[in-house]
From TrEMBL:
Residues covered by the Pyrroline-5-carboxylate reductase dimerisation domain: 168-201
Catalytic activity: L-proline + NADP(+) = (S)-1-pyrroline-5-carboxylate + NADPH + 2 H(+); L-proline + NAD(+) = (S)-1-pyrroline-5-carboxylate + NADH + 2 H(+)
Pathway: Amino-acid biosynthesis; L-proline biosynthesis; L-proline from L-glutamate 5-semialdehyde: step 1/1
Keywords assigned: Amino-acid biosynthesis, Oxidoreductase, Proline biosynthesis
Designated name of the protein: Pyrroline-5-carboxylate reductase
Species for this entry: Halobacillus litoralis
Length: 201
């Protein structure tokens, strides 16, 4: 694949639904797929990403991390510590911008798992992001440059609205409202559908 060196290389540690939505949004908006990597423990989770988007994939998290200018941590919160500690030595050598989409884990905790002193963005995308209509709240630590913030804005704008927070503590409210709010809408729609069926509509 011919690469566009002007675009930062993006690596995803974890290749689940949200990672797929983000990288799909990137490619759909013109991001060079040869600048994107993704890793997962088993290749069967990566095959569809290669087929659908033409990105690079690997089952080696360290190799994936070593390719990154921007490292998106997209594993489940309960395995984040293990995943970060596995790649910490690589991150300390290459110094990418780390971006976490894990709920409930603050930037200091994740930064420590990565070996400390790591520029980081913490973000909270919601479920409508899976269809490109989401809203993502973002918080940057002090070491994140304006250029890096702009790049992260572009990444998450590919799946909907991207909004920066002034204080990391605000992420708790975002998680409750933006993260969980769409589920209440889905529940309402399902209830209306059930009522309509009961009424013979």
């Amino acid at each position: 694949m011919q690469q566009d060196p002007q675009q930062p290389a993006i690596s995803f540690i974890g290749a689940g639904n949200m990672a797929r939505a983000i990288l799909g949004g990137l490619v759909a908006n013109g991001y060079d797929p040869s600048r994107i990597w993704a890793s997962a423990p088993e290749d069967k989770h990566l095959q569809s990403l290669r087929d659908d988007f033409g990105i690079y994939t690997t089952t080696d998290n360290r190799h994936c991390a070593s390719q990154a200018d921007i490292l998106i941590l997209a594993v489940k919160p309960q395995i984040m510590a293990e995943a970060c500690q596995d790649i910490a030595s690589v991150v300390q050598n290459t110094r990418p911008l780390a971006v976490s989409i894990a709920a409930g884990l603050d930037s200091e905790t994740i930064g420590n798992w990565l070996g400390g002193d790591v520029p980081m963005v913490r973000c909270m995308p919601n479920t409508p992001s899976l269809v490109g209509k989401g809203a993502t709240a973002l918080y940057a630590t002090d070491g994140v440059s304006r250029e890096q913030r702009d790049t992260v804005t572009d990444i998450f704008s590919s799946i909907g609205l991207a909004v920066w927070l002034e204080r990391e503590e605000e992420m708790h409210a975002v998680t409750a409202l933006s993260g969980s709010g769409p589920a209440y809408c889905y529940l309402l729609v399902e209830s209306m559908e059930a009522a309509a069926i009961d009424a013979g509509v």
